[in-house]
Write a structure and sequence with these properties.
CATH architecture: 3-Layer(aba) Sandwich
Order of helices and strands: EHEHHEHEHEEEHEE
Number of strands: 9
Shape: globular
Helix content: 25-40%
CATH superfamily: Phosphotransferase system, sorbose subfamily IIB component
Structural class: alpha/beta
Strand order of the largest sheet: 3-2-4-1-5-8-9
CATH topology: Fructose Permease
Largest sheet: 7 strands, mixed
Distance between the termini: 30 Å
Number of helices: 6
Radius of gyration: 15 Å
CATH class: Alpha Beta
Strand content: 25-35%
Length: about 150
Amino acid sequence: MIKLVRLDYRLLHGQVVFAWTGYVGAQRIIIVDDEAASDELKKTALSLSKPAGVRLNIFSLETTLAKMPKVETLNENIMMIFGNTGTLRAFCEAYPKIPEINYGALANRPEAKQYASSIFLTEKEVEDTKKLMAMGIRLNVQQTPSHKAETMAL
C-alpha cells in the first residue's frame, strides 16, 4: 500500500531516511526519476543512502507506470519519491489513484518564486501544481513528520 507520495528534488537523503521512512513504516521506497534511473553512479549513491531492511527501487516514469499493477499487489508499506513536478504530474495523470502528495522540497533557483519555507516553484512547476490541484489531489507542505503540515497554496 502506498503510504506516502513525496516531492523532493533531493530524492533520498537524511530527512527521508530517518524521519519519513520510520513515520510511515516504509518497507519499500520507490524513486521515480528518469535521470536517476538512467545514471548508474546516482543509483549507487542512492542505494547507499537507504535504511537497512528497506527495499529500494529507482525507476523511470515509464517503468513505474508499467509496474504499478504489481506494486498494488505488494503487501508492503511503500513510499514514493518524485524529483520534479513534471514527472509527478505525468504519473498522477496516468495513475489517478493518488489522493495526497507531500511537497517536501524544491530548490531555490533564479527563476523560481518561494511558495513555502522549502518550496520554490518556476512558472512551469506552478502549472504542474495547479493541474494536480485540479485533479482533486490534496497537496501539503511538510519537511518532516515533526513539522506541521500546511496546505499548499499558490
